Amino acid sequence: MPIVTIQVTREGTRPGTDSVTAEEKAQLIKGVSQLLLDVLNKPLEATFVVIEEVPTENWGWGGLPTDVYRRQKGLIK
User: Which family does it belong to (predicted)?
Assistant: First the structure.
């Protein structure tokens, strides 16, 4: 019984959103489950997918909090 955990930062992927949408989560669950079926022959009903959204202030990148790192790299203003 595979258990897959996906961690993403809690921010929107489109203007006006501040988290991953339910539709995006459904696509992730479907895609990961199908991949395990295709590669490892694990039945869909035996696969569990957990999506964890982490606030950006709790996510580090390059030794810095994510927002600080992005500002230094010019990725955000």
Answer: Belongs to the 4-oxalocrotonate tautomerase family.
pTM of the model: 0.83
Residue of 12, 10, 1 whose CA lies nearest to 49: 1
Distance in angstroms (rounded) separating the CA atoms of residues 7 and 66: 14
**2 given a catalytic annotation:** yes
Residue 77 lies in a domain: no
Distance CA 77, CA 74 (A): 7
Instruction: Report the alpha-carbon distance of residue 60 to residue 24 in Å, rounded.
Output: 23
Q: Which of 2, 43, 55, 65 is catalytic?
A: 2
66, burial (CB in 10 Å: exposed 0-12, middle 13-18, buried 19+): buried
**CATH number of the domain enclosing 14:** 3.30.429.10
